[in-house]
Amino acid sequence: MGSDLPKVAHPVAGEPMATWVVRACRDAGCDRIIIVVGYRRDTVRASLAGEPAVEFVEQQEQLGTGHAVQQARPVLDGFTGDVLILAGDGPLIRGESLRRLVEHHRTTGSAATLATAEVDDPAGYGRILRDPSGSFLGVVEHANATDEQRAIREINPSVYCFRATDLFTALDRVGRDPASGEFYLTDAPAVLAGSGARIDAVRSLSAEEALSINTPTQLAEVDAILRAHQSRAGAV
After folding, report:
1. Interatomic CA distance for residues 1 and 125, integer angstroms
2. What domains appear along the chain, each with residue ranges and CATH number?
3. Coil, strand or helix at 232
4. pTM of this prediction?
């Protein structure tokens, strides 16, 4: 991002980036909001000081997304309900979309449900793999994908709903990626599918909602979109 500021603390349309994600979760009806912090954790905490009833857990070592989610395990001890997992760099996600994801997850009785989107330019995103019948097979990261897989336009924007018990059972079985040495959350649904659990991947997000921020250019793009939304809402 060309800055020492943690990415999720960068302002987007006048608010810290992660604030938009927290509010979408609250709009979706989440009872608890748990934020995993690592790099410059105090700055991230301070950026969210205006958001009520959020909890923080620390990831001391940066060992990947699966490892990050594992840090929430102690504070979810005994919880057997559903857990939404989102990245903090996707501020265009809407509470309505999260509610639909949870409703689908509960209606189907799936162990895990992924929200997917189709985009014109999927570069950099994980691709959704399906069998010939359309059933979910797994997620392949862009860096590990074949040329054929990179042509897939259905992406994983890192929006998940898991049954809590299945989530942590799967994470216990996720191994380190041989290239990065990290534990990827994206491997957890495939682990569950391999054990016979039902996994769904639902095209439930718009291409706009799937936009994540990794560069100043993307930050400016998302900022403009959010400001346009605010302007339209103010005109109604």
Report:
1. 18
2. 63-235 (3.90.550.10)
3. helix
4. 0.91
